[in-house]
UniProtKB/TrEMBL annotation:
<dbReference type="InterPro" id="IPR016491">
    <property type="entry name" value="Septin"/>
</dbReference>
<comment type="similarity">
    <text>Belongs to the TRAFAC class TrmE-Era-EngA-EngB-Septin-like GTPase superfamily. Septin GTPase family.</text>
</comment>
<keyword id="KW-0342">GTP-binding</keyword>
<feature type="region of interest" description="Disordered">
    <location>
        <begin position="408"/>
        <end position="430"/>
    </location>
</feature>
<dbReference type="InterPro" id="IPR027417">
    <property type="entry name" value="P-loop_NTPase"/>
</dbReference>
<feature type="domain" description="Septin-type G">
    <location>
        <begin position="1"/>
        <end position="308"/>
    </location>
</feature>
<dbReference type="Pfam" id="PF00735">
    <property type="entry name" value="Septin"/>
</dbReference>
<keyword id="KW-0547">Nucleotide-binding</keyword>
<feature type="compositionally biased region" description="Low complexity">
    <location>
        <begin position="408"/>
        <end position="420"/>
    </location>
</feature>
<keyword id="KW-0175">Coiled coil</keyword>
<dbReference type="InterPro" id="IPR030379">
    <property type="entry name" value="G_SEPTIN_dom"/>
</dbReference>
<protein>
    <recommendedName>
        <fullName>Septin-type G domain-containing protein</fullName>
    </recommendedName>
</protein>
<feature type="coiled-coil region">
    <location>
        <begin position="346"/>
        <end position="402"/>
    </location>
</feature>
<dbReference type="GO" id="GO:0005525">
    <property type="term" value="F:GTP binding"/>
</dbReference>
Length: 430
């Protein structure tokens, strides 16, 4: 096997996949050394496995200094037939046996790389479009007094690397070119030489065309500005220099940057394209930027939103029809759904009423049964009490009769005793 550093191969694979615009997005630099280190540490090192996948890198293992978003993008690391050994001589299998904990074979696995991306920018632009659309959809709209906050131009600053565009820049511009007028600008253009700057401009233009990124082109259909706009299109992307410091140059105070080897003037066309950029934006093409925003980018957004709501320009047979027909169709569809929901709710209500009536009838039946039981129990108890009362009355009457008889006997006895006493008294007197 051809000897090559594992780190070099893995690094090449990461770079190759990160160069794919669909792989990731953002503008922050990625710590590739850290990514590679964590990739190796995440590998299963058992040499008996033919396919040893990378484990997913946990967010906690990513660099602490990075500001990570909740949603990221994944790039694929593809390294086939790559081994990391300790340098032992011998066969491939022997090296694997002796370097059991260090031998790694990477075939295919996704490694999560979280970076800052274009999503907040796109959301902000869409929010301005949505505000304008909501104003348009109002019954009483006052667009002539509406404060239009739509974004008419995006100045996309490119780092002056002098080599080529970053894949992150390509992805971001690709996502933005259908939403805003992009004007690419090389920032800090005094950081590279004139010859490098010329080559860099050509390289940027070539990469934008090859990747299908549509930047804003100054219009040439108007004869009054066709010549100047055609010339300025050839200067794209503009190379600019910024400064907040004013220096006295000749008899004038001008924005400039002071270096040991000389002075760079911001508004000197021989030094940078700032004046060209200002003229093209403010004096020549401002209205065209607004028109492009309204007729192209906003209309595309509006069309997509209306299609989401069910309003399309063609019917299923690709035949155009009026908005009134679409409105009536949607209205009828909505009314049909409303009637279905009302019918379903009515059926549900009737069903619940029936269930409630059944519950009430069952409860009423139980109450009647309970009442009958209690009534019967009451009657039985009353009958028992009446029988007991009758028995007691009979006993009382019998007792009274016995008492009367006893009193009668007692009185008779007393009378008999009294007569005998009188008789004895008479006999004594005699």
């Amino acid at each position: 096997m051809q000897k090559q550093s594992f780190i070099e191969k893995l690094s090449a694979a990461v770079w190759k996949n990160l160069a794919n615009p669909d792989a990731n997005t953002g503008t922050e630099k990625i710590n590739y050394t850290y990514l590679l280190t964590r990739s190796i540490q995440a590998c299963k090192t058992n040499p008996e496995y033919i396919y040893v996948p990378l484990k997913e890198i946990a967010p906690a293992d990513l660099p602490k200094s990075k500001k990570l978003l909740t949603d990221g993008f994944a790039c694929e690391v593809r390294c086939q037939n790559v081994y990391l050994t300790t340098g032992y001589a011998g066969s491939k299998n022997g090296s694997r046996d002796r370097a059991a904990e260090l031998a790694v074979r990477l075939l295919q696995k996704s490694v999560e790389v979280r970076v800052v991306h274009y999503k907040p920018i796109v959301e902000f632009i869409d929010a301005q479009f949505e505000a304008y659309l909501q104003e348009e959809l109002k019954i009483k709209r006052v667009l002539h007094n509406y404060h239009d906050t739509r974004i008419h131009a995006c100045l996309y600053f490119i780092a002056p690397t002098g080599h080529s565009l970053k894949s992150l820049d390509l992805v971001t511009m690709k996502k933005l070119d259908s939403k805003v007028n992009i004007i690419p600008i090389i920032a800090k253009s005094d950081a590279i030489s004139k010859s490098e700057l010329t080559k860099f401009k050509i390289k940027i233009t070539s990469e934008l065309v090859s990747n299908g990124v549509q930047i804003y082109q100054f219009p040439t259909d108007d004869e009054s500005v066709a010549e100047i706009n055609g010339t300025m299109n050839a200067h794209l992307p503009f190379a600019v220099i910024g400064s907040t410091e004013e220096l006295k140059i000749g008899n004038k105070m001008m924005k400039a940057r002071q270096y040991p080897w000389g002075t760079v003037q911001v508004e000197n066309e021989a030094h940078c394209d700032f004046v060209k950029l200002r003229e093209m934006l403010i004096r020549v093409n401002m209205e065209d930027l607004r028109e492009q925003t309204h007729t192209r980018h906003y209309e595309l957004y509006r069309r997509c939103k209306l299609e989401e709501m069910g309003f399309k320009d063609t019917d299923p047979d690709s035949k155009p029809f009026s908005l009134q027909e679409t409105y009536e169709a949607k209205r009828n569809e909505f009314l049909g759904e409303l009637q279905k929901k009302e019918e379903a709710m009515r059926q549900m209500f009737v069903q619940r009423v029936k269930e409630k009536e059944a519950e009430l009838k069952e409860a009423e039946k139980e109450l009647h049964e309970k009442f009958d039981r209690l009534k019967k129990l009451h009657q039985d108890e009353k009958k028992k009490l009446e029988d007991k009362k009758k028995s007691l009355d009979d006993e009382v009457n019998a007792f009274k009769q016995r008492k009367t008889a006893a009193e009668l006997l007692q009185s008779q006895a007393q009378q008999a005793g009294g007569s005998q006493t009188l008789k004895r008294d008479k006999e004594r007197k005699k």
